[in-house]
From TrEMBL:
Primary subcellular site in the record, as a coarse category: membrane
GO biological process per UniProt: mitochondrial ADP transmembrane transport; mitochondrial ATP transmembrane transport
Similarity field: Belongs to the mitochondrial carrier (TC 2.A.29) family.
Residues annotated as signal peptide: none
Membrane topology, as annotated: Multi-pass membrane protein
Tagged with keyword Membrane: yes
InterPro entries named in the record: ADT_euk_type, MCP_dom_sf, MCP_transmembrane
Source organism: Dipteronia sinensis
A Pfam family it matches: Mito_carr
Gene Ontology MF terms: ATP:ADP antiporter activity
Protein name, as recorded: ADP/ATP translocase
Lineage of the species this protein comes from: Eukaryota, Viridiplantae, Streptophyta, Embryophyta, Tracheophyta
Length: 113
């Protein structure tokens, strides 16, 4: 379970870092919406940011996003550990089954379909 959680955390961090420049462009466009000089499009915003500030400016604030991602995934792992301990069977092994019972008209369901 720990290996799977680490893999999911790594993939989540990777995806967040890859898409963070798009988030930066969106935020910059929203910040400029009330000003006289606006970006013409998202590609214009990206180009202007790269020309005026460089590539590093696209990743300003990414450390906060990495922290958020790490905390979110740590909390998810803690939740899963607690959930598995709570659902542990008599043998002490965690159970992973989910049972879903559907009611139909033959079982007494009296609703519209």
């Amino acid at each position: 379970m720990m290996v799977g959680a680490m893999l999911i955390t790594g993939v989540d961090l990777f995806v967040n870092l890859i898409t963070y420049p798009m988030h930066t462009v969106v935020q910059r466009m929203m910040m400029r919406s009330g000003e006289a000089v606006k970006y013409k499009s998202s590609s214009d915003a990206l180009l202007q940011i790269l020309i005026n500030e460089g590539v590093r400016s696209l990743y300003k604030g990414a450390s906060a996003q990495i922290t958020i991602c790490a905390v979110r995934n740590i909390l998810a792992v803690i939740y899963l550990i607690i959930l598995n301990k709570h659902r542990a069977g008599r043998s002490g092994q965690p159970t992973y089954s989910i049972s879903i019972r559907w009611k139909n008209s033959e079982d007494g369901f009296k609703g519209d379909h």
